[in-house]
C-alpha cells in the first residue's frame, strides 16, 4: 500500500530513531525530534520501535490512503480528522482505502508523529530511514515531503490492532513555559561570572528560527565573554574558539547575543563556544516548543543529569510494558 501526500504541511518528513555512529564524519543523528512521542506512535500500531514514521511541524499534512491501514498520531495537541471527522489522538485507528487524514492547528506542542502499521518503507541509508535535509539523503528522496509524493508502507505485524490507547505515562507534558535543565560545559568558563549567572536567572523566548537544526532563543541579556587574545585558528569574536565538536543538545551563543540549542540535524562541529548542553532527558521538550514559548535554563550537575536520564528510561519502559502485545 502507499500514502499519497495531498498537502505536505509546513515541514513534514520521514523520520525514525536516528542515525548514530557517523558523527565523526560530520553526519548528525537526525531522527524524530521528540523521541518519546515517536516511540509511542510505533508502539500503538504494533511496529518495531525503530520503524519510520511521518514527523510534521506546526501545520500537519493532508494524506490519502490507497488501502486499509492502522495509524496512530501522537505528540502535539491538535485536532486529528479522518474524512473531516475528528478522531482520537494517542490511539490506534483503522482507516479505509480512500480515507483522508487532516489536522487542525497545533494548539500546544510543535510536532506530531504519524505512525502506520508496517512503517514507512523508504530505503535504509547508513542504517536509518531518517531524512537528513542538509545532506539531502535518507527519508523520501532526501527531502521534506511534497504534494504528490507516494510513501510506501511495509507489512504490519501480527500485533497491529485498533483501539490501543496511550497510557498516561506516554503522553507528553506540553506547556508554553518550561524549565530546561542544562549541564554547564567546556566553555562556560569563558563567560563573565555575572553573565553566566544571569543566563540561568532570565527567561528566554523561542525565536522564529527554530527547526530540526537548532532552536534560537531571545529576550535575555546578551552574554559577555572574558577578554582574551584569540588563539591561532579562532576568529576575533569573543564567542569564537578553535573548531571543536558540538554535542547533541549543546548551546552555542554566537556573538554572545542569542543562545542556540543544537538539534538532531545540526552540524557536528564548528568555531563557536558551547557554554553547556541541555540534558538528553529534556531534548524532547525542546522539540515541542513553538516560537514565543518560554524557557528558563536550570543548571544541573552530572549526577542530576544521569538521574533524569534514568527516570526517562523508567518512563519509556513503563510505556513499553503498558502496550506490550
From TrEMBL:
User: GO molecular function: any one?
Assistant: ATP binding
List the keywords (alphabetical).
Answer: ATP-binding, Hydrolase, Nucleotide-binding
Using the record's annotation, list all stretches that form the Carboxyltransferase domain.
24-315
InterPro entries referenced in this protein's UniProt entry, alphabetically? CT_A_B (IPR003778), Cyclophilin-like_dom_sf (IPR029000), PxpC (IPR052708)
Q: Which NCBIfam families match?
A: urea_amlyse_rel
Protein name per the record: Allophanate hydrolase
**Organism this protein belongs to:** Hydrogenophaga crassostreae
Per the UniProt record, the lineage of the source organism begins with: Bacteria, Pseudomonadati, Pseudomonadota, Betaproteobacteria, Burkholderiales
Amino acid at each position: 500500500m502507499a500514502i499519497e501526500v495531498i498537502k505536505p504541511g509546513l515541514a513534514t518528513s520521514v523520520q525514525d530513531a536516528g542515525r548514530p555512529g557517523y558523527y565523526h564524519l560530520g553526519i548528525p543523528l537526525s531522527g524524530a525530534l521528540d523521541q518519546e512521542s515517536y516511540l509511542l506512535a510505533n508502539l500503538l500500531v504494533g511496529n518495531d520501535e525503530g520503524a519510520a514514521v511521518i514527523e510534521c511541524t506546526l501545520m500537519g499534512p493532508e494524506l490519502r490512503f490507497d488501502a486499509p491501514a492502522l495509524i496512530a498520531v501522537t505528540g502535539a495537541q491538535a485536532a486529528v480528522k479522518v474524512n473531516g471527522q475528528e478522531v482520537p489522538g494517542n490511539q490506534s485507528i483503522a482507516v479505509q482505502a480512500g480515507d483522508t487524514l487532516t489536522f487542525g492547528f497545533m494548539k500546544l506542542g510543535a510536532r506530531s508523529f504519524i505512525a502506520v502499521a508496517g512503517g514507512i518503507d523508504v530505503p535504509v541509508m547508513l542504517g536509518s530511514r531518517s531524512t537528513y535535509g542538509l545532506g539531502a539523503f535518507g527519508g523520501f528522496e532526501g527531502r521534506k515531503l511534497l504534494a504528490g509524493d507516494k510513501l510506501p508502507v511495509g507489512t504490519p505485524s501480527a500485533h497491529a490492532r485498533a483501539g490501543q490507547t496511550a497510557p498516561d505515562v506516554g503522553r507528553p507534558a506540553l506547556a508554553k513555559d518550561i524549565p530546561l535543565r542544562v549541564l554547564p560545559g567546556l566553555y562556560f568558563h569563558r563567560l563573565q561570572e555575572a553573565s553566566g549567572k544571569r543566563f540561568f536567572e532570565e527567561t528566554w523566548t523561542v525565536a522564529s528560527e527554530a527547526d530540526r537544526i537548532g532552536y534560537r532563543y531571545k529576550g535575555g541579556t546578551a552574554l559577555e565573554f572574558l577578554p582574551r587574545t584569540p588563539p591561532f585558528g579562532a576568529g576575533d569574536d569573543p564567542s569564537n574558539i578553535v573548531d571543536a565538536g558540538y554535542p547533541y543538545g549543546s548551546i552555542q551563543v554566537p556573538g554572545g547575543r542569542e543562545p542556540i540549542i543544537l538539534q538532531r540535524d545540526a552540524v557536528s562541529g564548528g568555531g563557536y563556544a558551547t557554554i553547556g548542553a541541555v540534558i538528553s532527558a529534556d531534548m524532547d521538550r525542546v522539540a515541542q516548543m513553538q516560537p514565543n514559548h518560554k524557557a528558563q535554563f536550570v543548571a544541573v550537575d552530572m549526577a542530576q543529569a544521569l538521574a533524569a536520564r534514568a527516570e526517562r528510561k523508567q518512563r519509556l519502559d513503563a510505556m513499553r510494558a503498558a502496550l506490550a502485545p
